[in-house]
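2024-03-11 09:14:02 INFO receiving multi-entity request
2024-03-11 09:14:02 INFO entity count = two
2024-03-11 09:14:03 INFO echoing inputs for audit
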Amino acid sequence: MMKRVPVLALLLWICLLFYVGTWIFLSGFLLVKVEVNRNSSCKDKPFSKQDSSHTEHFCWSEPRFKRAVILIIDALQYDFARFDPEIKDPRPFQNKLGVLSEVVASRPAHARLYPFRADPPTTTMQRIKGFTTGSLPTFVDVCSNFGTNAIQEDNLIHQLGQNGKRVVFMGDDTWENLFPNQFHRSLPFPSFIVKDLHTVDNGILQHLCSTVESSDWDVVIAHFLGVDHCGHRYSPDHHAMADKLTQMDQVVRSVIERLQNDTLLVVLGEHGGDSQKETDAALFLFSPSALFTVGQEKALQEVVPQIDLVPTLAQLLGIPIPYSNIGKVMVELFALGSPEDGSAQERRQAEALWINANQVNRYLDTYSLANKDLSPMILAHLKDMFLLATTEYKTLFGGPLAGGPEHSSRVQALIATLQLYLNQVREMCQASWARFHPLRMAVGNAVLATACALCFITSDFADVVGASYRRLLWIPVVSGTVAGGGFALWQFSTGSEVEVLSSLGMAALVSQLSFFWNFCRRKATRVFVHQPSDLLNATADAAQQRPALTWPSIPLTIFFLRCASLFSDSYVVVEGRVVTFLLSTLAIYIPVQMNWAGRLLLPFEAQKSAPPCLPLQPSTPAASSSYKKESLTLLGCTGFLVASLYSSHFFHGCRDEQGNCKPSAFLTPLSGLRDIQLRNFRYLLSVSSVVAWVCLVRRWMRHYGNMNSKSPAVLVARCGLPLVATFVSLYWAMSSAPAEDFGNLQEVVRLALLVFPRAVYVLFGLGVAVVCWDPLTVFLKSRKEPAPSLLPPTYRASTGVSLQAELQHLIPHIYQRMRKSLRAGEREGAGREDDGQPTMEAYGLGTVYSAPLLLVLALLGLVLAMLHPEGLMLSFVLLLLQACAILHMHSAATSLSTPGSRAVSCPLLLLWPLVCESTKAGKRGRRAGEGEDGEEAVMEMKLREDPDRFSTALLQLGARYLFIHGAQLLASVCSATILRRHLMVWKIFAPKFIFEASGFAVTSVCLLLGLALVMRVDSAVSDWFKRLIPAHSR
Amino acid sequence: MKDIEIKGMVSAHCIIALSIVMATIVPAVLLDDFSVYGTHLVWLYICTAGVAAVNIAVYTLLGVSPPAKKNTLSHKVAKVSKSCLYFMFSCLLFHGIVVLYGAPLLESASETFSFAVLLSTFTTLRCLCILGPNVQAWIRVFSRNGAMSIWDTSLQITTASSVTGAWLGAFPIPLDWERPWQVWPISCTLGATLGFVAGLFIAPLWIHWHRKQLTYKSK
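2024-03-11 09:21:47 INFO inference complete, emitting structure
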C-alpha cells in the first residue's frame, strides 16, 4: 500500500511555507493605499467652521496667478541645474543650465531654485500621479476601476478643468493615458523609444513658444524626455548631455522672455538619477511679478517634497486643493505684500496653511472612516492638534483685526503649529504607504530561502524523508503550529494586537528549523544503522543518491544563471530570449554529454554525430540496432525541442521597454483583424490546432489501448473532448466575426456567446468529475475460446497498431501483471482451472496512470485556450508536442544509459516550464507541471510493484519541481529586495516578482491536484485488482 | 618523447596565437580607419584567413594528420575536396545553431554567417587538420576516452573553449551599457577568439600538468 496522505501533506506543507514567505515579503514590500474617489470643489464648506468669514470655501479668493507654464524636464537632477562659477573644467552635465542661477541671482524676488524629492515608487506614471494628486502614489493603488490607467483620484488637472482653465499639454504620452480627454489641447509624443533623444523634445519646441505667445491657454504643461533618454542611453558624462542641457537652457530662456505678469513658470525635474544619493531633482519657480520677499531666503535650501507642489500650485492658481492631497503649501510663496506690513504677510501665510490643513484633515477623516491601515493613536493626536489650531485660528482671525506684537507672535506660533501638523500627517502617511518594512522583507526572504533548501533536501533525499514521515513531517508541522499559536496567544495575553503575519512567520521558521534538526539527526543515525546491516539496500540507496549529490554541474549552473538573470533589468526585459538561450544550451548539452560519456553510440559503432553528416550504414548487428534507434530518437527529439524553442518566439508579446518590438500576430484576437481573408485563414489555423490537439490525445490513448473500455472516463475521451472542442471553435467563430455581419441574428449571437463558454465550463467540470470518480480506462475481455496453447497469449493494444509498438510498450507490463494475477488465481482457486481456461485480456493497463492525467490535461488545455486569444492554440499544440519530445528524450536517455545519467535529463525536464513563460501565456506552467506526472506515470504498471518507491518517486518529483519554481521565486524576491531603490523596481522587478509569485501559486496548486489525481488512480487500480482477482479465480 | 611533443605543441600554438595578434595589428597599421569594432567584418575575415592559413601550414609541416593510405594525386584531391565540403557543411550547421540560439534570422545574415565561418575555423578546420575528413574519428575524439594523442587532447580543449567563449560572448548583448562591442556578432566573435586563444595556451599547460595520468591507447 503506498503512502498517499503523507506525500501530499508534505508537499502541501512545503507549498504553505512558500506562501507564508511570499505573503510576509509582500506585506513589507508592496505599498498599498486605498484611493478615495472624491473631489474637492470651491463650494465645499470647511468642516468645523460654522461662522462664515473670508475663507468660507477652499479657494483662494483672488488667485495670485491667472496662468502657469509648467516645464517638466525628465531626470533633471539638482546637480544639473546648479551653476557653480568656480568649476574651472565643468563636466558635460555641469554649468549648462546657466539661466536658472542667473535669474535667481539677478531677480531674487522673482525666482528661486529648490531641490525637489519624490517618494519611493519611481516610475514616470507614479511620479506624475504624485505631483498631480498630492498623494503618495503606491505600487498597487486599490482603485475602483481596473481597466484603465487613468487617474481616478482628484488631481490638479481635473481641478483645472473643473474651474474653467484651459490646459494645453505637450510631450510624454504617458500623460495622455493618465488624463484622457482632460486637456484643452494635447500634443502627445511616444516616449518608449529610449534611443530617440529628440522626437519628443523637438515636437514640443515646435509648438511651445507659439503657444505661450498666443492667448489660447491658461496652463501649459510641457514634458521633455531628452535629458532622461540621454542619461539612459549614454551617461551624464557625455557630450550629448551637454548639448541637451544647453538646448533646455535655451528653452527656459525663451519661455521666460515671453512670460506675462500674471504667469507663473515652474520648471521641475521629474526624477533624479538611479541611486538614492542622486534622487533630488530640481525645482525652479519664476514669475515676472514679485514672488518672494527678498531677504527671507535661507542659507541652505530645504528640500521640497514633490507633493508640496500640489497645494502650492492649487492655491496660487485659485483652484481647490485636490481632495487626497497630503502635501504642505510652500509658505514663502504666500508672503505677499509689502515687506513692511509683516502682519498682512503672516495673515496670508496662516490662511494658506489653514486651508491646506483643513483639506488634509478632511481627507484623513474620509480615509480613516473606510480604512484601518493608519494608526488610530496618531490619528487621534493629529485630530487634537488640528482642533487646537482651528480654535486658535478662529480667535485670531475670526473677530475684528487686531494688531500688535503679541498678535503677531501668536500668528507665528499658529503658522508653526499648522506646519508641524502637516509635516506629521505626511510622515504618518509615508510610514504607512511609502516606506518599505525591511524586517518583514528580511523575514520573508529567510522563510523562502529555507523553504527552498528544504525542497532541495526533500528532492535529493526523498528516500530518507519518505521513510520517516513522522519525524520529518508531523513533528515539524506540530511544533510550528504550537509555536505560531503560542506566539499569537502571548500577543493576545500581553494585550497588544494579534499580528497574524508575525505568528505565521514564527510558525514557518520554527517548523523549518525543526525539520532541519530532525533531518540531521535522522541522517546521522540512518547512516550509522544502515551501513553494517543492510548492505544491499545501502548500496542501492547510494547508487540512487550519488548522481543526486554530484548533480551534473552544468544543468545546475544553467539553472543558476537563469536565477541570476532575474537580477538584471535588461535580462528580465528580454526574458524570453534568455530562457530559450539557456534551454537550447541544455538541450544541446545532453547529446554532447552523452557522446562524451560514450553512451550515445556504441563504441566505434559511430555512424552519425552531432557535427556534420549522417552517413547511415545499415550494417549493424541486431543488438545495436535498437540502441541506434534510441539514440536517433534522442537526437531527433533534441532537434525538435530546439526547433520548437525557437518557434516559441513567434508567440511573443512585447514589453513597454522593448522599443522596436512588434507583438506576435497570434496575440491579437481574431475580432481585431480587419482583413477578412486573413481572419478566415487564422480561424482555420486555430480550429485545425484544436482538432490536432484532440486527435493527438485520442490517438495516444488509442495507441496504448485506453479507448476500448466502456467506462465513463473513456466516454469523456470519446465524446466529451470533441464536444468541448466544437464548442470552443464555435465560440471563437461567434466572437470573432463582427457583429454587423449577423444582421438580425444578433440576439442569437449574444446568447451563443454566453452559452458556449458556460457549456465548456460545465463539460469541463463534468469531465473532471467523471475522471476522478472512475479513472480507470482499462478494457477487460475474458476469453471464452481457449487460446491456442502452443502460442503465448496475444495481447493487442488495439487494432491497427504496429506489432513493434505493441511489443515495446504493452506486453511486458501486462504480461507481468497477468502472470501474477493468474498465479494468484491458481493459488486461490486451488487447481479448479485447467491450462487453457479463460485468460483475460486487459487493454490499456500499461498506461492506466497516464491516461486520466492526459485526459484532464486535454480538457484543461481546451478551457485555457478558450480564455486566450485564438492564435495561441497553436502554441498549445506546440507545447504538447514539446512535452512529448521531452518525455521521449527522457525515456531514450534512460534506456541508453545507466540510471546515473537519468539526472541529465531530469533537470531539463524541470527547467522546461520556463519556456512557457517566454510565450507569455501565464497559466502555461501548470501544463508543464502535470506533464511531469505523466512522465512518472510512463513507468506504468511497474510502479505498482513497488509502492514505496512509487510514492518516494512522486515525492521527489514534486519536491524537485517545487524547488525549481521556488528557487526562481526566491531569486525574484531577492532581486526585488536588493534593488528596491533601483529606478526600474516598479517597472520591472516588482511586476516580475508578482508574476513569479502568482505563477508559483498556480503551478503548486496544479501540482498538488495532479498528484492527488495520480493517487486517486492508484487507489482505483488497487480496488480494481481486488475485485478482479477473486472474480477471476472463482 | 612526450616532452618533445609538448614543446612542439607549444610552439605551434604560439604561432597560431601570433597569427591572431598579427591579424589585428597589421591591418591597423596598413589600412586606414581600421578598427576591430568599426570594421568588424574586415577584421573577422582577416583573422579567419590568417588562422586558417597558419593552421593548415603548421599541421602540414608538423605532419600531425594521419598518413594517407594511398599517396596518389587523385586521392589527395579527393581528400581536399572532401575537407572543403565538410568545412562548408559545418559553417552551415553552425549558422543554423546560432540562429536557433537567438541570432536574427534575416537581417545581418552575413554577419551571422561570418561568425559561423570563424567558429568553424576554430573548431572544424582544426579537426580536419588533425584528424582528416573522418567523422567517425571526430566523434571518437569527443568522448571521454577517445583521445589518442596529445593533439587530440588539445583539440578537445581548444574546441570546447572556443565554443564556450562564443557562448559567453552572447551574455552582454542584451545589457543596456550601450557599448560598441555589444552589437551582434562582435561580442560573440571576440568571445570565441579569446576562448580559442585561451584554449591554445591552456592545452599544453593542462597536458603538461596531467602528463602522468594521460596514457594514450594506440590505434
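2024-03-11 09:21:48 INFO post-check: The radius of gyration of chain B is 18 Å.
2024-03-11 09:21:48 INFO post-check: The longest helix of chain B spans residues 2-30.
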